[in-house]
Amino acid sequence: MDPKMEPRHTIAIWVDNTPGVLSRVTGLFSGRGFNIESLCVAETMDPEVSRITIVSTGDEQITEQIIKQLHKLINIIKVVDLSELEHVEREMVLVRVKAEDKSRAEVLRIADIFRCRVVDVSASTYTLEITGNHDKIRAVLDLLKNHGIQEVARTGTLAIQRSKKE
Amino acid sequence: MKLTGAQILMKCLEREGVKHIFGYPGGVVLDIYDELARTPSIRHILVRHEQAAVHAADGYARASAQVGVALVTSGPGATNTVTGIASAYLDSIPIVVFTGQVPTGLIGNDAFQEVDIVGITRPCTKHNYLVKDVKDLARTIHEAFHIARSGRPGPVLVDLPKDVSQGSTAPKFPEVVKIKSYNPTYHANPRQVARALDMILRAQRPVLYTGGGIVLSDSSEDLYKFATSLQIPVTSTLMGLGGFPGDHPLWMGMLGMHGTYCANMAVSQADVLIAVGARFDDRVTGKLSEFAPHAKIVHIDIDPSSISKNVQVDIPIVGDCKDTLGQLNELLKDKPVRDWTELRRPWLDTVNGWSATHPLTYVWDDKVIKPQFVVEKLYELTQGEAYITTEVGQNQMWAAQFYKFRHPRRLMTSGGLGVMGYGLPAAMGVQMAKPDACVIDIAGDGSIQMNIQELITVVDNDLPVKIAILNNSFLGMVRQWQQLFYDRRYSATPMTAPDFVKLAEAYGAVGLRATKPEEVEPVIREALNTRRPVIMDFKVEPEECVMPMVPAGKAMHEMLLA
């Protein structure tokens, strides 16, 4: 981790699936000056409940405030700081990278090493699908950067708590 | 039986016990106003600006401990309420604001008088609703009142599109509200309370620092019992004034930027600070790193997000002030009896020494009226029993310093947001809630002009509100900062005011003026004996400062004393 960076926290939020809830959550972050590094939202198995995963940066006190302030919103059912728990994180990235004559094989090799899938090919590019945690994604993108990245689309981090060991 | 949305709204208001609504009609609330005229149990007070409707509802709520209600139209009607809502939010005042909205089919089309008021007020309401279906109306209104008054209270806005008030359904009125994601914690964790009490009992120099939570939870008697049993000196925030009797020997006065020397020194020297229903606002703490540097801190608050927000506390207790103080008082009964008067003597001698050497004071002048003198006289001549509202600035601070509030819910002031123009409409609300009470707005010549139009509302409704203007021909508090920190460059603070006596008369109120100290008492007496709205125009010393003062960002013991 970059020493200058404040610690990252992955926070899972269960909310009523009603209009305006997302704007209440993001409004809280912007209004109180909290950072959002990434944000994902989708319905849960219960269509009345959505799950938001937010990655935020900040020290302990800021994170504590974020969680308390989130709890205070009426439509918020549950908030969990997954960083405090054993958990799994994944992010998916689609990246279109230049791959011409000399570099075509090298790009494929990188894709292979990091278990990326090639989802689209053209004469001068590959589009790769990369799935992994924050560190892996950064490692792949750093390597691909040398070959020329044309476009990136990222989902943002998703996370889930690990099941309790028997 | 089918009812229209407007009829359902009236039924819901009746069920919530609403007797008074402050409002202003308009295009999209015509159906609601039509129904209101046929609902004799609810009295509507027509204000002259929507901001005033919300402040009036706020004042009504504070004085009566009921939820205050405002009703306005869409667009500008709705945006005009924002200042009032934000003020109620920062002071945790339970109000419900109903705004009209364009018909659901037009929402998002930039229709005439359309504004996204739910979006605009999201950060300054406790919660808000846009009702899109008349079938949801009864439940939504019930939820709105429940949310406004429970937990840490606050404003709730309900946006009502015209087709929802016109539409009809056979409503179900729910008896109980269940919101699965909203369960405020009233009952404090007994183990935390016991830990806190142990710490308090071991303290040599304890201080109680109380806030608006004492007033809102009606726990001033519990506080009194706790403070007097253990002989702990008490200070409070602006919002907490009246929560502990202002003429009691344990009372140290308000703390913070314009707090007493005694209160600020006591907090700076305390070894245990017990914060009850207060939120460590910057106007209270001054420089955070030097706030209560020797103290272990116990913080009791119903809102967990208030705890350790600005100051790290040692024993956090999430719960209602009344419940928690009740538990503390119960636990005390089982503790060995000790002579607290004797044990506390060294600390109380120190505290009393501070208040004796540096009391709240001002320099008397034979020729010019001192504003503090006016407030002192108001206190004396009302025997401290009046309901006081204030505007914001010097008038507010002098009211807080020199009117000794003996009961809770007697001071209505825009503490958090600091709204100039709050006092007069709030006084209307208080007078509606307490028709026989003496209600006085302590105002400045600047602030009073921000909602002066409400004089006609007061006259119209025969509300005998008294307005005491401390008229210094300046925006006094800003001028004070310019004097102290900007080398007396009075940029945009000298201010011309109208002739308030003539103005009062033009509105049909009574106007009185005092220009010399000896005229102050006769003017106040005459006003108090008049069963009509009165403006008292006190021409006071123009360059008087509110003292003591902790300059912004300084530590509490670094007070300017004069």
Primary descriptors:
A: 166 residues, alpha+beta, Alpha-Beta Plaits, 2 domains, 9 strands, 39% strand, elongated, B: 562 residues, alpha/beta, Rossmann fold, 3 domains, six-stranded parallel sheet, 20 strands
Characterization of the model:
The complex is a heterodimer of chains A (166) and B (562). Chain A is α+β, with helices and mostly antiparallel strands. Chain A folds into two domains: 8-84, Alpha-Beta Plaits (2-Layer Sandwich); 88-161, 2-Layer Sandwich (Alpha-Beta Plaits), CATH 3.30.70. Chain A is 28% helix and 39% strand. Chain A has four helices and nine strands. Chain A has helices at 21-31, 60-72, 104-113, 134-145, and strands at 8-16, 38-43, 49-57, 76-81, 87-98, 117-121, 125-132, 149-154, 158-161. In chain A, the strands form two sheets. In chain A, strands 5, 6, 7, 8 and 9 form a five-stranded antiparallel β-sheet that branches. Chain A has a four-stranded antiparallel β-sheet with strand order 2-3-1-4, with helices on one face. In chain A, a hairpin with a 5-residue loop joins strand 2 (38-43) and strand 3. The longest helix of chain A is centred in the middle third of the chain and has 13 residues, at 60-72. Chain A is elongated and about 55 Å long. The mean pLDDT of chain A is 93. By secondary structure, chain B is an alpha/beta fold. Chain B folds into three domains: 3-169, Rossmann fold (3-Layer(aba) Sandwich), CATH 3.40.50; 190-357, Rossmann fold; 371-539, Rossmann fold, CATH 3.40.50.970. Chain B has 23 helices and 20 strands. In chain B, the strands form four sheets. In chain B, strands 3-2-4-5-7-6 form a six-stranded parallel β-sheet, with helices on both faces. In chain B, helix 1 packs parallel to helix 7, helix 11 runs parallel beside helix 14 (321-333) and helix 12 runs antiparallel to helix 16. The longest helix of chain B is centred in the first third of the chain and has 15 residues, at 50-64. Chain B starts with a strand and ends in a 23-residue tail after the last strand. The relative contact order of chain B is 0.11. The model of chain B has no long low-confidence stretch (mean pLDDT 97). Classes of the chains: A alpha+beta (166), B alpha/beta (562). Chains A and B meet through helix 1 and helix 2 of A and loops of B.
